[in-house]
Specification:
three-stranded parallel beta sheet, two-stranded parallel ribbon, 10 helices, about 45% helix
């Protein structure tokens, strides 16, 4: 919708998947690299408008990956301090978490509203500062190379998941210590990596 609003050809799905996680204007710039300098911000603004319109109409589905609720419970019960570092804005993140009654599960919510976007380590550094976590005991779990690069830059452990947006081999190249194929594997991998609840 954003590209149509500005009369640009719609990018293909694979190209879109490869920019998920970046700040929106940066993602738009990567999707349209030859555009004039002001175009990515205009596209980002149009995207936000279109997305809010869809959400207001009830046309946005934010399903959880299978097994995530069980693993959040297991990690919380084991004493892990849970947080989120996302390229979403705070408003969008809260809408998603509230849909699934998950807001209270997380002690820190870091968004692109309060820190530079991924792969800059700012959100992860803010999360550790807010919770008193040590980088050696902190694990970034993500599905994009930008998540892995952010973890490397922040000096934390990095766990990739194979069911998201970027291929497993890209996650490894970006710094993932391990890539898991199922959420159920996460607690065991965290122990193997030497991560520990705060």
């Amino acid at each position: 919708a954003a590209f149509e609003a500005h009369a640009y050809p719609k990018p293909d799905a694979e190209a879109v998947r490869m920019v998920v996680g970046l700040p929106l204007h940066v993602a738009m710039g990567r999707l349209l690299p030859d555009a004039e300098a002001d175009v990515p911000k205009k596209l980002a603004s149009s995207y936000i408008e279109a997305f809010h319109s869809l959400r207001e109409k009830g046309e946005v589905a934010d399903p959880l990956y299978p097994g995530v609720l069980d693993i959040l419970t297991v990690l919380g019960d084991a004493g892990w301090v849970l947080g989120i570092a996302t390229g979403k804005g705070r408003r969008g993140l809260l809408a998603t978490l509230e849909t699934h009654d998950l807001v209270e599960r997380f002690q820190t919510l870091q968004t692109s509203d309060t820190a530079p976007g991924k792969p800059n380590p700012g959100m992860l550094l803010n999360a550790m500062g807010e919770t008193g976590a040590d980088p050696k005991g902190t694990v970034m779990i993500g599905d994009t190379t930008f998540d892995m690069e952010m973890a490397v830059a922040a000096g934390t452990l990095a766990v990739g998941v194979s069911w998201g947006y970027h291929p497993e081999e890209h996650l490894h190249k970006a710094g993932a210590h391990v890539v898991i194929d199922d959420f159920a594997a996460l607690p065991g991998e965290l122990k193997s990596l030497g991560g520990a609840p705060s």
